[in-house]
Amino acid sequence: MLLDRTAGLAGDYLTRLATRRAGAITNYEDTVTRLGGGLPQQGTDALAVVEQLASVLGPATVASAGPRYFGLVVGGSLPAALCADWLVSAWDQTAYSRVSSPAGAAIEEVAERWVIEALGLPTTAAVGFVTGATAGNLVGLLAARHTLLARRGWAVEEDGLFNAPPVRVLVGEEVHPSVLSALRISGLGAARVERVPVDDQGAMRAESLEVMLAANVEPVVVCAQVGNVNSGSCDPIAQIVNLTHACDGWVHVDGAFGLWAAASPQYRGLVAGVERADSWATDAHKWLNVPYDCGLAIVAEPNATKAALHASTSYLTASDGREPGDRVLEMSRRARAVPVYAALRSLGREGLSKLVEDCCHHARRLAATMAAVEGVTVLNAVVLNQVLLRFIDDATTYRVIDQVQRGGEVWLGPTVWQGNAAARVSFSNWSTNEADVDRLSAVLTHSLAEVRAGTMKVD
Ligand SMILES: *Cc1c(COP(=O)(O)O)cnc(C)c1O
After folding, report:
1. What is the per-residue pLDDT for 295?
2. What is the pLDDT of residues 48-85, one digit of tens each?
3. Percent of the chain having pLDDT more than 70?
4. Shortest CA distance to 278 belongs to which of 148, 181, 109?
5. pLDDT of residue 458
6. Residue nearest to atom 2 of ligand 1 (CA)
7. 252, 46 Cβ separation under 8 angstroms
8. Is the CB of 295 under 6 A from ligand 1?
9. What are the distances in angstroms from CA 125 to CA 279, 329, 337?
10. What are phi and psi of 407, to 5 degrees?
11. Which helix (H) or strand (E) holds 30?
12. Counting beta carbons within 10 angstroms of the beta carbon of residue 115, is it exposed (0 to 12), middle (13 to 18) or buried (19 or more)?
């Protein structure tokens, strides 16, 4: 049957992840050509459609679901989460309300509690299952905007921001671009933010924030970050919360991947105090290893999100209890809590903390090995799952990365850290093991030697 055949094709793909090239095998242009032509006049048998997709698109994928991809902080898909996601597609529920889908609403209620327990957040907090941390940042800022302006007697949802009392927004110098997008969309503005200086690891300086908040008279939102996309560093969140709450401000935390440090007793200290913030954005599709797309928009005061987002019409009946649609921007959407539940159920608390800790240990193992290689500098303090490596100078660093990508055994990409080119290595995949880390060290060391000897591969 079609579904069995599809499962077989997916299974073949996943099996090959262990040995295949980490980068794409076929390129973009050829793929467009093979898929394209005009819209067909006649239909094609469903099995033939699926087989064509598997044969044409499979090789054009980057093996980011596999153990040797260290590029973006993406993670793969835990088996239980992947299969749960297939069920979600088969059920095709509109996870808007208890009426539109009892299944979608019920599993959200349980997954919400589990997420909150896993991350050690306030038990009354509301979790919205959104597309990603970008949407999570937007929901957090909309809840902040609502609350701070309502306190000044301004109904922003009805009256908009024209003539509203000004709201100050402070972000760290190393703010993630998705927070700036959320500020643009929410009308709080990306260019009018005040940028708080950061330390050499990219973490906000609490003493600078203190100076900037002194004599604060306006409603203020401070956007903190746990998990810098380059260094993995976390803002001093306890101090940020103390300073911001002392002037009745709102702390929003972008913890797309870093918030998961809270799930490990060993790494929780990095984000100590995070549970006292007002809103959080994180991803399930990164470190929790569920399939795309799945982010979590978490707000301590559920009424704040409901007031900021609630939409009602005569044909949408809603109960007075927890309704999924009160926590997100969308009405129609897939039941994203299902793979989250499956991931957490299959891991348990122990498996989740081990997943986080293993990734962090891999980062330290790589850093220790590479620090001993002549010509290599580890640019960051490896506190979480991120490692920044520099090979002699900018030009050599870019050449080494290029060489590694051509080789295809592993995949990683470049970044710029404090003005210096670096290779950015992220560990967030459940299936990466120590042998993969050692293979990565060997590839990097070998590639540096090749670049130095001038024996680079050329196309
Ligand atoms: C990935 C990331 C985001 C954006 O998350 P999406 O899921 O891609 O929307 C925001 N902030 C940080 C720190 C990230 O790593």
Report:
1. 98
2. 999 999 999 999 999 999 999 999 888 999 999 999 99
3. 97
4. 148
5. 55
6. 256
7. no
8. yes
9. 9, 17, 16
10. -60, -40
11. helix 28-35
12. buried
94: Cβ contacts below 8 Å, ≥ 6 apart: 100, 101, 104, 331, 332, 333
The pLDDT, as a whole number, for residue 320 is: 79
pLDDT at res. 113: 98
Cis before 402 (ω within 30): no
Question: How many residues are recorded in the chain?
Answer: 459
Contacts of 356 (CB under 8 A, 6+ apart): 260, 261, 263, 264, 267, 287, 385
Task: Name the region of 74 (left: φ>0; alpha: ψ -120 to 50; beta: rest).
Answer: alpha
Instruction: Flag residues of the chain having pLDDT under 50.
Output: none
C-alpha radius of gyration, the chain, whole number: 23
Q: Answer whether 132 contacts ligand 1 (Cβ < 6 A).
A: yes
Q: pLDDT of 361-384, one tens digit each? A: 999 999 999 999 999 999 999 999
Give the position of tokens 């309704």.
323
Q: What value, to the nearest 5°, has the Cα angle with vertex 47 and ends 46 and 48? A: 90
CA distances from 148 to 31, 156, 168, 219 (A): 50, 10, 10, 6
Number of neighbouring beta carbons within 10 Å of residue 220: 22
Atom of ligand 1 nearest to the CA of 176: 11
Peptide bond into 293 cis (omega under 30): yes
Residues in a beta bridge with 387: 425
Spatial separation of the C-alpha atoms in residues 227 and 376, rounded to whole Å: 24
Residue 181 contacts by C-beta under 8 Å, 6 or more apart in sequence? 134, 137, 138, 190
Atom of ligand 1 nearest to the CA of 135: 9
Tell me the residue type at 46: A
CA of 184 to the centre of ligand 1 (A): 16
> How far is it, in rounded angstroms, from Cα 404 to Cα 10?
27
**Token pair in block for residue 307:** 């007031």
The dihedral sign for the CA sequence 245, 295, 232, 121: positive
The ligand 1 atom at the shortest distance from the C-alpha of residue 132 is: 7
174 lines ligand 1 (CB under 6 A): no
Q: Is the CB of 73 under 6 A from ligand 1?
A: yes
Residue 393 to residue 398: CA distance in whole angstroms: 9
CA of 303 to the centre of ligand 1 (A): 25
The reply to whether ligand 1 has any atom less than 6 angstroms from the CB of 77 is: no
Instruction: With beta carbons less than 8 A apart as the criterion, state whether 408 and 353 touch.
Output: no
Of ligand 1's atoms, which has the minimum distance to the CA of residue 285? 7
